[in-house]
Amino acid sequence: MAPHRLRRLIPASVALTTVCAALPTSSAYAADTPPTPHLDSIERSLRETSPGLEGSVWQRTNGNRLDAPGDDPAGWLLQTPGCWGDPACKDRAGSRRLLDKMTRNIADAKRTVDISSLAPFPNGGFEDAIVAGLKASVAAGHSPRVRILVGAAPLYHLNVIPSRYRDELLGKLGSAAGKVTLNVASMTTSKTSFSWNHSKLLVVDGTTAVTGGINGWKDDYLDTTHPVSDVDMALTGPAARSAGKYLDTLWDWTCQNSSNPAKVWLATSNGASCMPSLEKEEDSTPAAPAGDVPVLAVGGLGVGIKESDPSSGYHPELPTAPDTKCTVGLHDNTNADRDYDTVNPEETALRSLIASARSHVEISQQDMNATCWPLPRYDIRTYDTLAAKLAAGVKVRIVVGDPANRGAVGSGGYSQIKSLDEISDTLRKRLVARTGDNEKASRAMCSNLQLASFRSSDSPTWADGKPYALHHKLVSVDDSAFYIGSKNLYPAWLQDFGYIVESPSAAKQLKTELLDPEWKYSQGAASTPAGCSGNGAG
């Protein structure tokens, strides 16, 4: 902030001394804290959109530490499979680190373990990591309360049965089972709006958290010759408590609806009742600081949990576009529903993060466009924000999953487009709508856009011939701030969660460990928009 000019030097200095003496000591600390323009901008947007959800769905905290081992400063970044440059993926160091981190965090549990994912339940090596951690916690003399929540798509996940998974876990825990109190649930908040949990969280004691895009599915991530490339992050500090309170919000709904089999299937152990709160009951005790990293935890409630934030005065002018619908489809929550916006602050947060960029935006995503029909094709405001950045000379790099992964409607594949042209053509349309000039739109795209499908080696496919599947939900801006979580940039009305971190040092680690190797290999699959030459922006 620019210094103020003192007009009346002596009286002003006396007044300033008096005021400063009355300020709390935290103000002096704040003056020494590095500026956070990106988080500040996002927080302002959330206070406008969803003020009533602060503390339950979103929360900004200081005093966090990215949770890396002492000998690996970038070890907070957990990538699968972690075999850059090797199409045979013989050494999956990233997957091993993730499983080891899961076990170690759970082993440290003194009171609670909170896990969420998309159905099916964690299996294979993921389940083994959970069991090993719980056994270690019990061996250390603790009796942890454990919640495992998965989102279930109607019909598709009919075989995901919580009681069966509970029994399986108890059997694997053996003698430790009696010391572990389990809640295991699958939930669907709205069948007609395709809404269920999609967050991927491991929160232990409200002090450590792992989150991102990784589902605990052995067949997709571990026991395969073509593993999904994905990323989580680990932290410790007050933002972990924020994640626990978000899960409390989901479990509160789950427990309220546990007697309705159309919405919730619940299984418990040791005669336990449904546990709606693990972290909110601890909220009277301030979360202990663990470092100096500012973090904005932000989630969404999808459809069916809460209709709107009644305290919000948000009144947006919602843009329209004729190509977002493929047929007569569902009500468009993404592009045409102010109330939906107020209970899904993560969507506002991601648009605001992109809007805060001044020099460059790097996006690594499963996809930018949804499965149309039944969902709207794209998020107009996200594309408009990207178009505005391109028009302003901001460099934009987008890497998405190889369209060769395109499968059936919904969960049938790891891509929802037939060609990268679907992304570049949409960007061009939004640029033309913004500038009113085809030539200006072309110049902006040719000068500032890089677009590619994902590769993790020089080979165009894995060694087994399968295309690379990408499941990142990652946005990074200006080598300063980034989002890692479960929320996709394409329309999806699920319950999701992630962290926005503002830390140039952490952003540099992200660039070195993920974004740079990703582009090293993916640029060979870059798409050149119509009318351009080369691979877009340099």
From TrEMBL:
GO terms for molecular function: phosphatidyltransferase activity; phospholipase D activity. Keywords: Hydrolase, Signal. SUPFAM superfamilies: Phospholipase D/nuclease. GO terms for biological process: cardiolipin biosynthetic process. InterPro entries: PLD-like_dom, PLipase_D/transphosphatidylase. Its EC number is 3.1.4.4. Pfam families: PLDc_2. PANTHER family: CARDIOLIPIN SYNTHASE (PTHR21248), PHOSPHOLIPASE D (PTHR21248:SF22). This is Phoshplipase D.
